[in-house]
Each structure stands twice: as C-alpha cells, then as structure tokens.
Write a structure and sequence with these properties.
The structure is a single chain. The protein has 97 residues and is α/β, with parallel strands linked by helices. The chain has one domain (7-87). Helices cover 30% and strands 29% of the residues. It is built from 3 helices and 5 strands. A 5-stranded mixed beta sheet has the order 1-2-3-4-5, covered by helices on one side. The radius of gyration is 12 Å and the shape is globular. The model has no long low-confidence stretch (mean pLDDT 93).
C-alpha cells in the first residue's frame, strides 16, 4: 500500500520556495498521526490553510497551531474535505480553486 501524500502549496511558491519548506517543517513537528489525516496545506501570506480528511481532535488542532507558531505565524484556517471548519482569518478557500 502506498503511503498517504500531503499536497503542499503556497502563495508565491515559485519565487519564495522557503514557504513550502516551512510547511514541511510544520507537519514534521505535528507528527505522523496528523499527517495521516491531512490532505493539503497551503501558506498564503502567513496564514496556514489546512485541509483535513477527518474531524480533528482538539489536541490535533492545538498541535497544528503550535507548530505554525514555531514559524513565527499565528493564523490557521481549518477545512474538512475542502469545507470550512474553523477559521482564524477571512480569505478565499484555496482548496476549491
């Protein structure tokens, strides 16, 4: 069986590849359990957008927020199967484009 692959994207990823690198670091901090329920992550000007395949626990939400803070950022928008779930910042849903 092939392992689950998380999709990574970022605003200006072509000119700022460090945005993708930090998304990888965030998922590494979160751990395998969270990676296994994460479909996609997107960095848009410092706001982290997370699309999950399953309902997260409160601890998993906190883990994502705390991991994003290690990158000096604080806003996280959560989606479940591309539908808004818990959003800190207004913005267009990057998972429905």
């Amino acid at each position: 069986m092939r392992p689950h692959e998380v999709e990574f994207s970022a605003y200006n990823a072509d000119t700022e590849p460090s945005r993708i690198d930090r998304l990888h670091r965030v998922l590494d901090v979160c751990g395998e359990e969270i990676k296994n329920i994460t479909a996609s992550v997107h960095d848009h000007k410092g706001t982290l957008y997370v699309d999950l395949m399953l309902m997260p626990t409160s601890q998993q939400i906190c883990d994502f927020v705390n991991a994003w803070r290690t990158q000096g950022e604080y806003l996280v928008n959560f989606y479940i199967n591309k539908m808004p779930f818990l959003c800190d910042a207004p913005g267009e849903n990057p998972f429905t484009r």
